[in-house]
Design brief:
By secondary structure, the chain is an alpha+beta fold. The chain has a domain at 18-46 and 90-188: SET domain (Beta-clip-like, Beta Complex). It is 22% helix and 22% strand. The protein contains two helices and ten strands, in the order E-E-E-E-H-E-E-E-E-E-E-H. The protein has helices spanning 52-65, 162-188; strands at residues 18-22, 28-32, 41-45, 48-51, 77-79, 84-87, 99-100, 106-111, 114-119, 130-131. The strands form four sheets. It has a three-stranded antiparallel sheet, with no helix packed on it. A three-stranded antiparallel sheet has the order 4-6-5, covered by helices on one side. It starts with 17 loop residues before the first strand and ends with a helix.
Length: 189
């Protein structure tokens, strides 16, 4: 058996369950090549293991560059633990093309330091594969969601923050309505 060296290029991660093609939601997506039963490890999310400090630096770079190429402007960082993240912006990480949805059919799970995308329900052949990116409350307004599902909350945000978001959006609507009614009253005078 041949030993691997640092010069060996990692092979593109493949999965018998998926194919990559254009997405209606956002650029490129991952689709089920076959029916996928709930509980299946669809694909591993791979990349370079980096410290939190390096991860923060890398997260700012695409935002600062405001890149025209959608993939260049994207961030593919995945939190592994308190010390390390996984930077999935590598050519061999096919899973980086999985889009976010507020009504996902998959979830991410960290098993022994490795990140897997796992089906949370049965997925039919031809369906696009999604998981919730679970972004934090901080800067949520910078991450609008375009999934278009009935459950869409309008932002890429962990579900634990949805009640807080709904309260905030309700207050904004009410304030806007109040302002609008006040303006109507002033116009009648």
């Amino acid at each position: 058996m041949k030993k691997s060296s640092k010069n060996d290029k990692p092979k593109k991660v493949k999965s018998p369950y998926i194919k990559v093609k254009k997405s209606k939601i956002h650029g490129t997506g991952i689709y089920a090549k076959t029916d996928i039963p709930a509980g299946t490890r669809v694909i591993e999310y791979v990349g370079e293991r980096v410290t939190k400090k390096e991860s923060d630096r890398r997260a700012q770079t695409p935002l600062e560059n405001n890149a025209e190429n959608e993939e260049m402007g994207a961030v593919y960082l995945f939190e592994i633990n308190k010390r390390y993240d996984l930077d999935g912006y590598v050519p061999y990480n096919t899973a980086r093309f999985i889009n976010h949805s507020c009504d996902p059919n998959c979830e991410s799970d960290i098993i022994k330091g490795r990140v897997y995308i796992i089906a949370i329900r049965d997925i039919k052949k031809g369906e696009e594969i999604f998981y919730n990116y679970n972004y934090s409350w901080e800067d949520y307004e910078d991450h609008p969601c375009y999934c278009g599902t009935k459950r869409c909350v309008g932002f890429i945000l962990a579900e634990e923050y949805w009640p807080k978001l709904k309260r905030k959006l309700k207050k904004k609507r009410e304030a806007k309505q109040k302002k609008s009614k006040k303006g109507e009253k002033n116009n009648k005078k």
